[in-house]
């Protein structure tokens, strides 16, 4: 769906080079950029100060606006996604809320895919109605069902693959349908990363990321980013970014630039390990279902990440399985070097509603797995012993 494998290889080589090299030389010829850990920037004269304020010169004024270290991260992600500009945030949710609120106003209707990220769902169910914005949910795999809801809508909010059950959507067809109705599109690309999916090339207007996941890759940063056409980023800069104040810190910007250097290497390993583990699980009698895009021929992605889910068969105890895991640790989030397991039953019992897992009908037998950078054979051995333990009466 996304072109032949040869052109994909050439492109990922270009991506790797772009991530290894910085556009601008750093002070003292430092190979690694400095962390510009400053709140404000000073000027030699009123004239110079005025030039920054009136926009004649694009120099940073204050780090709630622009910061040079954060800008390196923004420029790299924009280039990777093919966006004209990008804006980094203190979290993925900062990026999502600032992007959505820059688009919608009172009286608008949003169409959103089912199995959207749980906190995006809470934003749509709790905050947007207070602002006079309604949200409708639709199975994103059903193009006709989406088409029926588009006339008169303001925004189509997409995630592919979706959270928890990893449905892959035809972003190109969805973007075209939305464009035909004058509906803006936002797609969450955290799972695929810009290496495995480039939504802007498929016609999507804005791409959002939780950079806390694969982009940082080391489970030590919470961050987000939005990229797309300059006009859309300008509207975020005009309406939400400076006032909601969810700016990224310079040090986290630096950690993200550092993490991005190895993104192509890490994603190659995640892809291979994730597929190996998923295929093994698919052949295990205790596993009823494996939800991993790599196991479907029509996923349409340039590659597959290593976050997927399984449903344990009847007679297997989810708690016994999870508690028996040794290499897979129990935790939320994903995209770091370490393997993680998250049982859906914990999310289904979360006290603070609204609850997307309940509302979209996720099974209590489901366990989400993130395959980290450990040896796949060791991970398989760990899953094998835990499944054996969960099967015992
Ligand atoms: C984690 C996640 C987010 C939220 O990102 P934070 O950095 O935790 O705010 C958004 N979308 C998806 C798909 C995620 O998995």
Characterize the structure shown.
- The chain has 393 residues and is α/β, with parallel strands linked by helices.
- It is 41% helix and 15% strand.
- The chain has a seven-stranded mixed beta sheet, with helices on both faces. It has a five-stranded mixed beta sheet with strand order 8-9-12-11-10.
- α12 runs parallel beside α16 (376-391).
- The model is unreliable at 1-6 (pLDDT under 50).
- Bound molecules: pyridoxal-5'-phosphate.
- Pyridoxal-5'-phosphate is lined by residues 91-93, 117, 159, 163, 188, 190, 210, 212-213, 222, 224.
Total strands: 12
The largest sheet is:
7 strands, mixed
Residue stretches low in confidence (pLDDT < 50, at least 5 long) are: 1-6
Average pLDDT across residues?
95
DSSP strand content: 5-15%
Could you list some keywords that capture this structure?
41% helix, seven-stranded mixed sheet, binds pyridoxal-5'-phosphate, alpha/beta, 393 residues, disordered N terminus, 12 strands, globular
Topology (SSEs and partners):
Elements: H1 5-20, H2 46-53, H3 68-81, E1 85-89, H4 92-103, E2 109-113, H5 118-130, E3 134-138, H6 143-149, E4 155-159, H7 171-180, E5 184-188, H8 193-196, E6 206-210, E7 224-228, H9 230-239, H10 241-244, H11 250-261, H12 263-282, E8 287-291, E9 307-312, H13 318-324, E10 329-330, E11 340-343, H14 344-348, H15 356-359, E12 366-370, H16 376-391
Parallel strand pairs: 2-3, 2-4, 4-5, 5-6, 10-11
Antiparallel strand pairs: 1-7, 6-7, 8-9, 9-12, 11-12
Helix pairs in contact: 3-11, 4-9, 12-16, 13-16
